[in-house]
Fold:
Amino acid sequence: METVFKSENLCKKYGKFSALDNLNIEIPKGSIYGFVGKNGAGKTTLIRILCGLQQPTSGSFTLMGKSFNDKEIYKERRRLGAVVETPAIYKDMSARDNLIQQYLLLGLPDFNGIEELLNLVGLSNTGKKKARNFSLGMKQRLGLAMALCGNPDFIILDEPTNGLDPQGIIEIRELIIRLNREKNITFLISSHILDELSRIATHYGFIDKGHIVRQMSAEELHAECRKSVRITVDDTKILAKIMEERNIEYKIFDEHNAEIYDVEIPFSDLAESFAEENSTIYTMGEHEESLEAYYLSLLGGENNA
Amino acid sequence: MLRVLYSDLRFLLKHISLKICIGAAMGYALAFVVILKIIMSLVTEGSFLSGEDILSAYNDIAIFFITALAVMLFTPDFNNGTIRNKLVSGLRKSEIFLSSVFSGMIASIIMTVIVTLFEALLSIIFSEGFMTFNLAELSDNFLMLIVTAAAVGAFVTTIVLLFGGTKISYFAGFVVAFFLNLLGSEVATSLYPLNGKCTLTGAKLMLYTAYDRFMPFMHFEGYPRWDFLSYLTGSIALTALSIGIGLIIFPKKEIK
Structure:
């Protein structure tokens, strides 16, 4: 498998605190890699190291095949585009001027692609309006446009949908999918909106306390997500009794609603057991565990991803 | 390197900081002239304002204006995160540092040239003429001032960049500028007392004289006292020292 980024036992310490602890990660080329973890799990630290903002304390990584201690690695970063934490933009400049700055930084010969980029992110009608006066969503779009300057091969987006309205979220999602499919751009996306991430990611990396707990493809995740049956009954105490007798795993939500984790159980069997207990099943439906639920089962977090 | 310098220069010309600092320095020079004129007309009978007095208005506190300019130009790079774009664009930290220092030097020169020309205009309008210098000497002084401004620009930009991303970056330059201003006054008043002779002797005299001769900040203290070569040597040394220290520390600095 060809990778754009691969780390081995990567560590980053701030004093006694280990932000990254023997982190091993592989980001396949052409993937949309969903990077999931609690606040403070080490997502941004890894992104910072990847972008060259910080140096690892120990361990190693390769970016586009170049080792982290290769003096020429900075050249590979020209093939990167990144929005880290907040969009890095010149607030006293218009959207167009910001993109010109980025074009100059990249040493691009002309500014021909700027109008196309502004159209792509929906900022073509902002004129001379300074970025300072942009809404958070507009700043986010401008940050994305800056990351797209120079047709990068690998784009890193830290919370790309922050501040976007529902329409904006859909547009950014479609843009990411389009760029990934049409231009084969690899994306590393860290997002708190797991439902949104699950719509686009082809691969996932779950990080906790500075190390990768699990890496998997979207297909593997789908296969691993537990299916369940959501059930509404007149009394969940009776449901609990029946499930205990049958040795079936279950979870009670309230006195009427529960979830059982055996989707193969015949409805007629279950209905008969309830009838014997003079109890009633009102509704029953199959339910697939979401990325959010899988995340919680994997990392057991109460904090945000 | 050239691409980031081009980008930085475009930024500094477009950014409002340069205009604000130039405007403030010109406003200061104008206020200086107006206040002196008023005081002279009301209090001091028979005194007059010379062109040299007006030309020294900006020089006396130029280091603070240059520091303010460096702070306004380079702290946003850290606060807005635009320095991240530079690193992700495949630039080395040393290139980013050098480009910023050169931009700081150019910004200082632009401000100093414009404000000095404005002071020259004020001198023509409000002063009774130049009492000490002829045109050739004024041109010499102007050149020395430009060289000094460039060196001071490199020095304060280095300070701002080394502390960039922390709150210290906002006032570290001003603290250093204030300290150097005090030191400069002490050296100048000790070497050239208003009343009586200089009483310094031995090593202290040598140190004070060397400081007065080579330290670029001293060129802003009153009238030029040394030859151009001394000013140039001091300015080049300060610039080289600033860049040298910066090139050692800045590449190791972690960017937030």
Observations:
- Residues 2-252 of chain B form one domain.
